[in-house]
Amino acid sequence: MTDKELVEMALDARKNAYTPYSKYQVGAALLCDDGTVFTGCNIESASYPCGICGERTAMSKAISEGHIKFTKIAIAGSSEKICTPCGMCRQFMYEFNPNLEVLCSDNAGKFEKHTLADLLSCGFGSSSM
């Protein structure tokens, strides 16, 4: 799977976002070590803390299906600016792969490559306990 293909899957997943409050849609496509891809979108609630980001939706789907080894994730937002994961998502992803490759995209598919270690320096993991 190419980076561009994964970003396209994130852009497609974004279409399912439920965002009646912020109107900001995010899609994610998560590549597992065995080549399986899980997609997700953000889902808002009137009670904001109950919402979930696209990245965590994709990861939750994967984990609930028995996948916990991830190599790459693409994230696509609905604006002209590159969409990067929020702090909560960065920490959540860190739990499973501190060196995860993160493709951050705008609404047209233009993307930047990062590692999670670059996006979340000094992350908190099991070795921190």
From TrEMBL:
The keyword Metal-binding applies. One of its GO terms (molecular function) is identical protein binding. It comes from Treponema saccharophilum DSM 2985. It catalyses: 2'-deoxycytidine + H2O + H(+) = 2'-deoxyuridine + NH4(+); cytidine + H2O + H(+) = uridine + NH4(+). This is Cytidine deaminase. CDD domains: cytidine_deaminase. One of its GO terms (biological process) is nucleobase-containing small molecule metabolic process. Zn(2+) binds at C53, C86, C89.
